[in-house]
């Protein structure tokens, strides 16, 4: 027995029942005022900037030589890239030493 789309739940309409049983369309929600939209945008932007600041602060904790310095984001990024490149070179050197000593390294760690 198949049911028609109007008999199934989730038929795609945007109406919901209120406690009184009255149907209310989602479109009937009050719209945000321009000021509320502006305030939401400002809050979102502040949150985004704070997340970026926290990310840079975390990098200054992780990358040697950046501790306690004034934070120039360009400098933090440059030194982070330099540090990561150095780490990759050191890793490759360790892999080569292991293999020269007769050991083996899983290929997934050679990338």
Strand tally is 2
What is the assigned CATH homologous superfamily?
Answer: Helix-loop-helix DNA-binding domain
The shape is elongated
- How many H/I helices? 2
Structural class: mainly alpha
Distance between the termini: 57 Å
Q: What is the count of distinct domains?
A: 1
Mind telling me which CATH architecture this is? Irregular
Low-confidence stretches: 2-11
Helical proportion, percent range: 40-55%
What's the story with the biggest beta sheet?
A: 2 strands, antiparallel
Q: Key features?
A:
111 residues; mainly alpha; two-stranded antiparallel ribbon; 2 helices; elongated; transcription regulation; BHLH domain-containing protein; Max-like/E-box_TFs
Textual characterization of the structure:
InterPro entries: bHLH_dom (IPR011598), HLH_DNA-bd_sf (IPR036638), Max-like/E-box_TFs (IPR052207). Keywords: DNA-binding, Nucleus, Transcription, Transcription regulation. One of its GO terms (molecular function) is protein dimerization activity. This is BHLH domain-containing protein. By secondary structure, the protein is mainly alpha-helical. Strand 1 and strand 2 form a beta hairpin. The relative contact order is 0.05. The chain has one domain: MYOD Basic-Helix-Loop-Helix Domain, subunit B (Irregular). The protein contains 2 helices and 2 strands; from the N terminus they run E-E-H-H.
């Amino acid at each position: 027995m198949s049911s028609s789309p109007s008999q199934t739940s989730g038929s795609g309409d945007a109406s919901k029942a209120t406690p009184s049983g009255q149907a209310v369309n989602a479109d009937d929600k009050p719209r945000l005022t321009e000021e509320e939209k502006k305030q939401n945008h400002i809050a979102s932007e502040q949150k985004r900037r704070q997340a970026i600041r926290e990310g840079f602060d975390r990098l200054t904790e992780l990358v040697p030589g950046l501790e306690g310095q004034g934070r120039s984001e360009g400098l933090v990024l440059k030194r982070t890239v330099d540090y990561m490149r150095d780490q990759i070179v050191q890793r490759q050197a360790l892999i080569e030493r292991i293999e020269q000593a007769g050991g083996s390294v899983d290929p997934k760690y050679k990338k």
